[in-house]
Specification:
By secondary structure, this protein is mainly beta. It contains one helix and eleven strands, in the order H-E-E-E-E-E-E-E-E-E-E-E. It has one domain (2-208): Lipocalin, CATH 2.40.128. The protein has one helix at 2-15; strands at 40-50, 55-66, 71-82, 85-87, 90-97, 107-122, 125-140, 150-163, 167-183, 186-194, 198-208. Strands 1, 2, 3, 4, 5, 6, 7, 8, 9, 10 and 11 form an eleven-stranded antiparallel beta sheet that branches.
């Protein structure tokens, strides 16, 4: 059994950087401009992927709150399966909108930082996985279709730590993107994230009035 736990830890370390742009959390699925959303929103989402070593999926919920016109704080929690291991990841994040950027008038740009952790359990043991992420999030300043469809993209750095008795870490770069669609009462989104493997995610953001 000890060998199985060690193998799981190695699998997590090898595959986790490829899981998604904000490992242990949902895909971004949003505009970089907080002004495109109300002050408070809640969302549900799912991520699935075959990481080559193990299958991965997460179902999660996220709350977003706009503190200022430029700053959004967020918190999320979910349930996750990583191969034979089950976990309950949770995390916090902050987004800062670059309202005065001069790079492009056709794009909105923001910086985002987040931290997530989870305890994964197997039949006879458990281990901790944590991830620190720094991303640049970009999105179109205007919709790309008459029904309001928008696009977003992200690129970021990830510091992943895995501790299943023996601690190890990895540094990775990842990128992703997707589409958003305004709906009655909120916004639907779908996208992907990619490093060496690809995962897909979708969700719905409800606007709390």
């Amino acid at each position: 059994m000890k060998k199985r736990i060690i193998a799981l830890a190695v699998s997590l370390l090898m595959a986790a950087p490829f899981a998604n742009a904000e490992y242990l959390g949902l895909i971004n699925g949003r505009s970089a401009n907080p002004g495109n959303h109300p002050d408070l929103s809640v969302e549900l989402g799912v991520i699935v992927g075959d990481l080559g070593v193990v299958d991965y999926q997460i179902i999660g919920a996220r709350v977003n709150y706009r503190l200022t016109p430029e700053i959004v704080v967020m918190g999320d929690v979910g349930v996750s399966e990583f191969g034979e291991a089950d976990g309950t990841p949770f995390g916090l994040g902050i987004l800062y909108f670059l309202s005065n950027q001069r790079i492009s008038q056709t794009m909105d740009i923001a910086g985002k930082a987040s931290y997530h952790r989870a305890d994964y359990k197997v039949v006879s043991g458990q281990g901790e996985v944590s991830n620190l992420t720094f991303e640049v999030l970009v999105s179109g300043a205007e919709p790309i279709s008459a029904n309001g469809v928008g696009w977003y993209g992200n690129v970021g750095y990830h510091r992943l730590n895995v501790d299943f008795g023996n601690s190890d870490s990895s540094n990775e770069l990842g990128f992703g993107g997707g589409l958003t669609l305004p709906t009655r009462g909120g916004e639907a989104y779908a996208g992907f994230d990619f490093t060496d493997e690809m995962t897909f995610g979708l969700g719905f953001r409800y606007y709390v009035q």
